[in-house]
Fold this protein.
Amino acid sequence: MSTTDVSTAEETDEGWARLLKLLDEREIVLRTTGEKLGYLAPAGAMDEEVTGLVRAHRDRLLTILTGDGAALFAAPAGVTQWRLRKAHRAAADPAVWNITHRITLRGPLEPERLAAALTAVTERHESLRTRFLETELGGLQQVLPNTPLDVPVDDLRGLAPAERDAALAAALEAEVARPFDLTAPPLLRARLLRPAAEEWVLLLTIHHIAVDGWSLATVLADLSALYRTGGPLPGEAGRMTDHACWERTVVNRASMAAAADHWAEVLGGASLAADLPTDRPRPEQRSGLGETAEFRVPAAVAEAVGRYAAARSTTASAVVVAAFARLLGSLSGASETLILLSNANRRRPADERVVGLLTSSMPILVPTRSESGFGALVDHAAEAIASALDHSLMPFGLLVEPLRERGVPMPVGYPQVVLAVQSTPPIGLDLPGLTAEIEDIPGHSARADCAFSLTPDADGYLGQVEYDADLFDPGTVRGWLDALVADLARQLEVPLG
């Protein structure tokens, strides 16, 4: 194309359409810092034609990227973030993606100081003040200027005990049930209730698109430090926009095709449906209704998990995956099962400082029984986890449709069974002169048939399962959990009770 032809095209919609086509075909990533337009591109992608078109349409690009100047920074949304944004929009109950904690504080709390610290947290971590938009340039995240966070305070001290308890329960239910608008940050909100002179309840809710388990620990640690010092923290926080731009340069069409080919070979001959026995027929469309049940893996069993893993030169996750595989096999009768195992997905040192949604899930295909005993199942699980980690750069959720196109029978209800064995930093809140008790508050929605999590603590593992209430009754799920803990103890030869 000659210079004259380019100049003509640049002044028309044809030139704009040509630019969008080239940006997509060549997988060029655009970002902004204020009015500065930047890009990441494969070698040779930014040739004279693209450079000329970008220069000609710079103002239009900046208008889209910055939301007509509203955003301080803009970049493509992270891969997992954008998948979650779509899930949020499609969910029968978008509040399923709320992460709510009830934090009971005892001592001389200063509410204004807490509100200032929360505002400083949203200043430090851009994901908490980011909006997500669908544009001509694709899915964008736009980081908005920080504003003081409103932390309403409800004084309940004058209520009778029953009225006070009812007010606390109603406030908690309202927080859990109120969805976020992903186009209108902040994606963190806080409410403070005062049931007694030196007792406070902080209801802290963050949308999952802005934090994962690792991030939550960072948010609470920084909140503690900012409440103590009242000033900026040393060191730079990680930036989700930086991570997303890097991610878009490695999660590309070629790597997606290679990943789909790999997993098609690994999974192609397997029956991937969990086929758990349900209490009711599966509806054509999920209502989104879910419930949560907690369970406990005692300290003696948790310690035995660690010893068993060390003896076989593997991790606790492999032992837990093997135990879950046995449970799923006993329920479905299948000889092998697919478990989606959560992965922190923080590959680079800079990612450890990022508050955002980086977590992804890896497919672990394992046998449910072995004539060689439990140890053989653990070894299978360890090998499957190691292989999945080697191929975990590509979020598996992106591969569902490419795998179906390759003939892999991905379940219609994907994802079905999800498992997280937490290895993230422990969450805690350390405020001067105060004690803090943190309780995770589940909602009444479900993101999968069953989503299990295990979190190590001083008493072993605290377990939680979020399950689809359209399919399962509480008693059914409780029976599974009791069977899981009993079987794990039996396999590790640990007496219960």
